[in-house]
């Protein structure tokens, strides 16, 4: 979710600085260096959002300020009565301290030297170029606000920083902000004052002298119809909840724009006991009641037959979807409603099983649309893990929706392949060399994850085509990886079925990682290091590069894998871009197998140990002459070796939440992507956005014909369009869009410019109806 104010943007930035991969220790502290002390005025208001914020300064523990040695004691939890939870990462604001000086111990002043070692135990929050964040740099780079570059604007920005920090970002977008715009914010803000008083009445009153307070009383009595002294904060809460006049509607919109700035307001609104108009979402009690009702509905869905469970979740989504647009959702008070959206998508897709007249047709059906059910399950799991108190219930619902669909699909594919010993092998097609292509092997790149990678690449204007192929059996790396190598036959007869690892051609050596790489080099392939990729020496070179930790993380983290997928995709995009940049005309992304992921583990299937020489979760090597009492399939590299496979998505090992090696579309149907360097990116700049009522006039500067504009609540989601229709730009670069639903008045939206394929190439935030 995009930050709505400068304070929220800082909060998000500090939180991101503390993120680490699963299995990696979090930083001991976040260091916020500020050599010029520009950010000092925001320390106190920021503590509403970042409670564990400590500042370098005179010793004043009550206000969380102290010298370097005191801050060091805070980080090490060495102080009595320190209100710092064990799992919290303290943020150390360091005015007058530069990151470069702190990292150079010799140049660091003695007073700051206790902090030097925290540069290595902790994480410094800074610009991606390594420099300390300045206010101007942060506002331009993170909030994408167009600031005038003159000295007067810089001075005004620093002077008005406390006021700018609480201003909705959307009100500063779409125009060039100069000193005059900033100084105008210094006028009285009656709506902001009213919300601040309702949130913290005592603290607000202390900030006002008697004269100002009396003026505020008269203004609020005249404008809002209540006296803060005579009527109190409860009366204001009743009006905010129940009064549907334009005046109070404006107050509500201001609160919705940045609810985290008014943390006490939720408590005030809970004190309202008047009858509420139908459909109100202004009282948090409605949201609380909705969450209780939704929890009961989800718990009931878990025990229903599969089709009924899907229908139940879809019905719950229709009932509770609107609560995701309330400020209570942004305040984290609607976790079940937030998690319901991907659950409903999963329920919709899991209602129909995956079919096909033969294995090839089923693979085509999975590659066309079936993978979307797996993506919905990953999205639902991601939400579940983000809402830990509700994670148990959400995982049970995911299992109830996903497991029957997954099992039915696997059983159908197993039936199709079990008709013939050669059916599975006939679907496997090894790669052949392609001049000028770098093959990028990504371990465990499941089809749905590959489609997310394709979308990211296309978003960067990198043309990407997708295909699919069938993995050899069993679907494990040792068996499947050699097939993905583009240098002809390098595997000979024989191997070690206990490890499912074949022999190199003409040897009795196992085809392990190093041996395979050496064989590739002998065949003339260029081995490309992912850390420092190099391009081809000759036009006809074939490259080989290996990367990716999806499979490793899955075995290590089980369902915790979902938290790492985005980071893995980001790393892949960067590597692919680097390979193209160093001269490879094409990058072909290949993999070995997919995988299954199921909360609470795959169903356990028994298999006697006496009949197997090796047993994994989804496959087992059967001893010669043994009868395992289970379906068996030939090993791809030696058809005389039999591999037992559990039925459906069963597992021979207990509590296996992540597994591969068996037969299912998710394990067997694997992607192949081909990426090339596209044409020069299309350039388009939104120069003007002007509202008149519910119609917006847009002017775009571009030299490319055929572009169009849309108005969306979410930038990259065409399903959130609120425009009556998408409009193509005129030759002058102008277009006009109408918003048909007047309930969108005053809401935030994105004006987006689209290329001829519907990709977003420029975007700008706006407020519907903002004059």
TrEMBL record:
<keyword id="KW-0614">Plasmid</keyword>
<protein>
    <recommendedName>
        <fullName>BREX-1 system phosphatase PglZ type B</fullName>
    </recommendedName>
</protein>
């Amino acid at each position: 979710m995009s930050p709505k104010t400068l304070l929220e943007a800082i909060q998000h930035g500090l939180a991101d600085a503390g993120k680490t991969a699963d299995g990696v220790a979090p930083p001991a502290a976040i260091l916020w260096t500020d050599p010029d002390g520009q950010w000092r005025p925001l320390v106190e208001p920021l503590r509403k959002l970042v409670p564990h914020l400590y500042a370098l300064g005179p010793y004043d523990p009550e206000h969380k300020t102290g010298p370097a040695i005191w801050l060091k004691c805070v980080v090490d939890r060495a102080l009595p009565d320190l209100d710092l939870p064990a799992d919290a990462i303290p943020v150390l604001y360091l005015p007058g301290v530069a990151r470069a000086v702190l990292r150079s111990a010799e140049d660091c002043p003695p007073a700051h030297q206790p902090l030097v070692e925290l540069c290595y135990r902790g994480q410094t929050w800074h610009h991606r170029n390594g420099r300390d964040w300045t206010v101007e740099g942060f506002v331009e780079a993170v909030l994408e606000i167009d600031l005038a570059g003159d000295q007067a604007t810089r001075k005004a920005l620093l002077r008005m920083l406390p006021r700018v920090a609480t201003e909705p970002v959307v009100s500063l977008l779409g125009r060039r902000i100069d000193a005059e715009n900033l100084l105008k914010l210094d006028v009285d803000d009656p709506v902001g004052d009213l919300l601040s008083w309702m949130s913290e009445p005592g603290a607000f009153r202390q900030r006002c002298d008697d004269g100002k307070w009396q003026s505020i009383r008269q203004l609020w009595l005249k404008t809002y119809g209540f006296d803060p002294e005579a009527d109190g904060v409860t009366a204001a809460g009743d009006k905010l909840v129940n009064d549907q006049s334009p005046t109070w509607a404006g107050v509500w919109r201001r609160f919705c724009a940045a609810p985290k700035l008014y943390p006490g307001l939720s408590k005030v609104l809970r004190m309202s006991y008047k009858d509420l108009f139908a459909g109100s979402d202004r009282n948090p009690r409605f949201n609380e009641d909705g969450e209780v009702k939704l929890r009961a509905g989800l718990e009931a869905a878990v025990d229903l037959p599969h089709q009924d469970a899907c229908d139940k979740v879809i019905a719950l989504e229709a009932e509770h979807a609107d609560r995701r647009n309330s400020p209570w959702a942004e305040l984290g008070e609607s976790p079940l409603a937030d998690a319901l959206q991907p659950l409903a998508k999963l329920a919709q897709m899991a209602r129909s099983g995956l079919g096909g007249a033969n294995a090839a047709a089923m693979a085509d059906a999975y590659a066309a649309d079936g993978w979307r059910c797996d993506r919905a399950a990953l999205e639902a799991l991601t939400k579940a893990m983000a809402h830990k108190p509700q994670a148990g219930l959400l995982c049970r619902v995911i299992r109830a929706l996903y497991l029957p669909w997954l099992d039915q699909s696997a059983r159908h594919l197993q039936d199709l392949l079990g008709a013939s010993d050669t059916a599975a092998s006939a679907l496997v097609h090894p790669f052949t060399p392609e001049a000028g292509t770098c093959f990028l092997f990504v371990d465990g790149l499941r089809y749905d994850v590959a489609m997310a990678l394709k979308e990211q690449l296309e978003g960067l204007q990198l043309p990407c085509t997708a295909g699919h192929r069938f993995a050899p059996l069993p679907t494990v790396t040792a068996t499947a990886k050699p097939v993905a190598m583009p240098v002809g036959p390098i595997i000979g007869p024989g191997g070690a079925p206990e490890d499912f690892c074949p022999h190199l051609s003409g040897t009795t050596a196992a085809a392990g990682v190093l041996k395979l790489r050496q064989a590739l080099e002998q065949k003339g392939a260029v081995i490309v290091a992912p850390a420092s990729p190099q391009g081809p020496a000759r036009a006809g070179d074939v490259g080989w590069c290996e990367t990716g930790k999806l499979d490793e993380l899955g075995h290590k983290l089980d369902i915790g894998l979902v938290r790492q997928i985005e980071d893995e995709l980001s790393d892949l995009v960067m590597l692919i871009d680097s390979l193209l940049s160093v001269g490879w005309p094409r990058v072909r992304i290949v993999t070995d197998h997919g995988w299954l992921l199921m909360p609470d583990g795959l169903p356990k299937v028994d298999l006697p140990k006496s009949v197997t020489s090796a047993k994994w979760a989804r496959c087992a090597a059967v001893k010669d002459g043994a009868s395992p009492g289970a379906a068996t399939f030939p090993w791809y590299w030696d058809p005389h070796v039999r591999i037992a496979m559990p039925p459906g998505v069963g597992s021979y090992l207990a509590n296996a939440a992540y597994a591969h090696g068996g037969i299912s579309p998710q394990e067997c149907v694997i992607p192949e992507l081909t990426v090339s360097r596209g044409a020069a990116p299309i350039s388009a700049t939104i120069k003007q956005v002007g509202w008149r009522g519910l119609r917006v006039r847009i002017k775009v500067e571009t030299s490319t014909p055929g572009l169009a504009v849309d108005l969306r609540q979410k930038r990259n989601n065409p399903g959130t369009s609120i425009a009556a229709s998408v409009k193509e730009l005129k030759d002058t670069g102008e277009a006009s869009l109408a918003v048909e639903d007047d309930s969108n008045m005053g809401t935030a939206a994105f004006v987006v410019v689209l290329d001829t394929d519907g990709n977003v190439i420029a975007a700008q935030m706006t407020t519907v109806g903002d004059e």
